[in-house]
Amino acid sequence: MMNFEDFEEKTLSRETIFNGQVINVKLDTVALPGDLGLAKREIIFHNGGVAVLAITPEQKMILVRQFRKALEEVIYEIPAGKLEKGENANPEAAMLRELEEETGMTTKSVKKIAEFYTAPGFCSEKIYLYKADNLRKVDQPRPHDDDEVLERHEVTLAEAKALIHNGEIQDAKTIMAIQYWELETNA
């Protein structure tokens, strides 16, 4: 079995290409393992995000529809959002914030499903995926972000699977959450 050193690309230099509010883009020059030479790596640094499989007492999943500029489309997703600076130490609290902002709901029943990288070939973004059930309405919920326009939907597992099948759900974190829900339901 190969060791870490057999794979490691050592950073020789790093150039800042862009520093933004959500991402930072760097260009690294790396020494490849062994005698394979040098290579360039374009890397997006992202603080990470949270997402939640929110299940209502009626056993429906809450989805939100919103416009995603990178896709130039309106898509279905589970409630989610980016981790603000300092929230990496407590992603569950960030998830509860996003749940309240995007759905007007909260819970004390939370289970972490997974942590995963969205595109590890070029991006450091890690999403913390949770399940929340026993939801209850918040009397005066936090407002969603000023730059967000959301439409809330509740769907059964069968309806969620149909949305995947007909191509209306193409978001990976949402598909992962639905697959988890199906596995848990059929266990």
UniProtKB/TrEMBL annotation:
Keywords: Hydrolase
Source organism per UniProt: Pseudolactococcus raffinolactis
GO biological process, one term: nucleoside phosphate metabolic process
GO cellular component, one term: cytosol
Pfam families: NUDIX
Record bears the keyword rRNA-binding: no
GO MF annotations in UniProt: hydrolase activity
Keyword field contains 4Fe-4S: no
InterPro entries associated with the record: Nudix_hydrolase, NUDIX_hydrolase-like_dom_sf, NUDIX_hydrolase_dom
Taxonomic classification: Bacteria, Bacillati, Bacillota, Bacilli, Lactobacillales
Stated name of the protein: NUDIX domain-containing protein
Positions of the Nudix hydrolase domain: 45-177
Cofactor: Mg(2+)
